[in-house]
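User: For a benchmark we're assembling, each entry needs the component sequences followed by a predicted structure for the full assembly. Here are entry 17's components. Please fill in the structure.
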Amino acid sequence: MLSYPFMQNAYMAGTLIAIISGIMGVFVIARNMSFLTHTLSEIGFAGAAFGIFMGWQPLNGMLLFTTISSIGVGELGAKSSRRENSITAISALAIGLGILFLSLADSNASYATGILFGSVIGISRANVVQMMILSISVLVVVLVVYRYLKFDSFDPIGAQVRGLWTRTLSVIFLVLLAFSVSVAAQIVGSLLIFILLTLPAAAAKYFAHTVGMMISVAVGFSLVGVWLGLYLSYVTNWPVSFFIAAIEVIFYFSALVYQRIRA
Amino acid sequence: MTESILQLNHLSFAFPDKRVLTDLNYDLKRGDFLSIVGENGVGKTTLMRLILQELKPTSGTLAFLPNRQAVPVGYVPQFRNVDTEYPLSIQDFVGLNFAKVGLPWLSGKERQRVNQILTETKLFDIRRRPLGQASGGEKQKAYLAQALLDEPSLLILDESTASLDPVAKTELLDLVKQINEQQQLTVIFVTHDIPLARHYADHYLFLSPGHYEAGNISELTNEKVGEMNNA
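Assistant: Structure for entry 17:
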């Protein structure tokens, strides 16, 4: 299987995606941003469609759209009830725009399904290199702000009274999230990105009690999901995103059951 | 004469639609245990936000001595968003306060400091318990430990005992009093529990709408409380 270049690329890209998603996911869960992550992936779809319409790489369109909107959401500010409604509105507009750009771009349907549902064969070596650069940038920034991000995510009130620059931190985090969403979409597709960015970390919460351990467990869960998913997809010729989704959901519900039994 | 660490000079604050603090003067000395008391809505929290520099005085000044940097402030707020599923262990939660650019994990020295503060706050034995599964009193102690981690010279307890049962209240305040006496930690204890203030504080600052009164805690008699609240 690994003698095919497209499978090599898929495994390399998948590994990057799993690592980034596992790390970012822990903060997404701690900051209660599952819903926003979901919206960012829809915005990513619009961005990718726009990219195709403009004749760019879909990934570049995605990066553009998700980054701009994540900064916009950060500026929308604190009022969470209002934010939730705004996010719904933005998300509706994003899907609409995505459909519009796809139809204007006059591209074939398989391209659209590729963006929405992900694909294994579509990833070139150049894509892998670009994803690697993006992933490393995300990792470096996370590493630099790690302790601040940890404090602000796991104890926002404590961080605020301590005088941490929490507003700047949330904008930085949202931009990192935008990058991660765009990278992850390459394999699992924009409809299912939030699976890798939320479920492994949500499950990890029940097994680990330090941020470092939660990250390790979450990365582990997403690696298993992606690797096994790619293998099963290769063997059965079924879509890889289906397998990844199924595996992560199994992890998550097992974690809930484990928690129930222990309690 | 002990040194002052915080001086309020003719401090006033008004929200656009409401005047909250009027011409407040107070000189807080190092090592003092000051209780700020008063009914809800008289400006206790506003005063804390002024001290934390989240708000700016409308007029007058609020000055740390010799300067702001010399007086690190630890703050234990009344509410924290920690639910029963909150995953971090008490130890990891306390260590969050080492917020700076550095290695993702804590250095040996930092770990030692965390353990020291956990021992001081009597949390060492349960340090691995997830904070979400700790009792109310243990949670407040963990918040206290986190605030004490980087050795503040001023500790603010903002209604930190309000939701605790009597035993946990005493336990927490005994602990604070002990650190206050042994390490000359200055404490501001915001509460509307007058008997509790009387038991632990050295001085009081009584806020009521439009005016205030300050003095030795022994002067805070029941008659005075009645008088102030009806004024």
